[in-house]
Amino acid sequence: MDIDVRSGFCKENSTFYSKRKPLTLPPNPSLDATTYISSQPHRGTTAFIDAATGQRISFSDLWKAVDRVSDCLYNEIRLRRGDVILLLSPNSISVPIICLAVVSLGAVVTTANPLNTTGEISKQIGDSNPKLAFTTVQLANKLPGSISVVLTDELEEPTRGVNVVGILSEMMKKEPSGERVRDRVGQDDTAMMLYSSGTTGPSKGVIISHGNVIAHVAKFVAQWKGDEIFLCTVPMFHTFGLLSYAVAAVALGSTVVILRRFGLNDMMEAIEEYRATSLALAPPVVVAMINDSDRIKAKYDLSSLRTVRCGGAPLSKEVTEGFLEKYPTVAILQGYALTESNGAGATMDTVEESRRYGSAGLLSSGLEARIVDRDTSRAKGVNQTGELWLKGPSISKGYFKNEEATNETINVEGWLKTGDLCYIDEDGFLFVVDRLKELIKYKGYQVPPAELEALLITHPDIFDAAVIPFPDKEAGQYPMAYVARKPESNLSEKQVIDFISKQVAPYKKIRKVVFINSIPKNASGKTLRKDLIKLATSKL
């Protein structure tokens, strides 16, 4: 194949290839993810620290706990290959122990957001049919009484209507029986089932194989040095938090400091106290750090911090430059991935790469991409816009019990249709223009909301913004903005409309503005447009 060295594009098959170093993956098909992770060499000592309590667990104690918990699950609860367990928990040291133990047995981990309602959790339970749930005393009442529960904290008083069959801390103290005969687990077996964020539609269970997890771990290890101290600011029930911080960092031998819940000041205190070197943030937090930089730098010692990774939405040139100006010793690196791609997509790995403004970075190791015209299904070339398709060892096999959605999203050749409108430039950098499902159709023109949002947050009086389609008889739809003003601002609707009008083509103009206290987002920082659309159209 004749692959262009600069762009990674091959004209013969209209495919872009990653310019990163190739992934080193184990050839053995009969390998579970936990065994692969435990076999990685490193010199690390402390695996996890709870930022709230200072509780620590070493790597040796972590693996001892994993072995004991998996033994209890196998012999006492009779958990077997293919059985599903539900993990309903805030961020804690318990999460990696439970995940590694369950996955080692060939059983499947599914996670739920602790903020979900009882109804939402019941729906996920109905779909995934877990044999067991791990949760806290506080959250146990969100579960139906029919499900067996292992509590991750001490039982202070009987929990009414909850079928408690074990307590994690007691499991971690029991010596292994030595009677376990492990089921044979292969890389094609399902390790996890994570429910996609559902920003544009109903949430679906994404099937993640042991091979997918191994590919993510291999990419993570290739990307990072072992001397990092990661601060886990993102939820561990989400793909990024679970795969990167609860799982992959263990293989790297790095310390992960766990924030139970996000708070800007809590994060700053933890960076200072534990000398954190790296963290991942959603774009609104990056903006908050810029706006509040004088106070933050006066109050906290952030000298250990080297890297901030950012995803969920593109950062504008103004935000990137603003962050580098306020925090000149910290690299801010963007990335792009989906639940269905298990951390693979595109990344920036250097400050030099981060100056390719508007880009999500270069294709991840081991990944292939196509840019496809939705109308003709024809694959396009360099600097041409179309739907991004991805293929590689990290890509999910599909959705649980949803053949229709699987066939719509992943074709027979294994290409994942991301639903994102993108292009790849002459140097191999990926640019995400917008979600295809979210494009606003104004009189036949397509308007990308992300482009307007990026302009809005450059206004000195705007803290955050979201743009949605608003129905209109004449135009079909037009762009409407929800705007969160900075404190003390008296910014008016007309000022916002005029600000955008001067910078865009007439069909892209914002024609309606509503001011709001904060923009609703999911755990990974993505704007919940469907919630805003519902709010905007509820009075029609």
From TrEMBL:
Keyword check for Zinc: no
Quote the CDD domains the UniProt record gives.
4CL
Q: Where is the AMP-dependent synthetase/ligase domain?
A: 42-400
All residue ranges annotated as the AMP-binding enzyme C-terminal domain in the record: 451-526
Q: Report the GO molecular function annotations.
A: ATP binding; CoA-ligase activity
Write out the entry's keywords from A to Z.
ATP-binding, Ligase, Magnesium, Membrane, Nucleotide-binding, Transmembrane, Transmembrane helix
Protein origin, superkingdom? Eukaryota
Protein name per the record: 4-coumarate--CoA ligase
Which is a Gene Ontology cellular component entry for this protein? peroxisome
Q: Does the keyword Cell cycle apply?
A: no
Family as reported in the entry's similarity comment: Belongs to the ATP-dependent AMP-binding enzyme family.
> Which cofactor names does the annotation list?
Mg(2+)
* Annotated transmembrane regions: 240-259
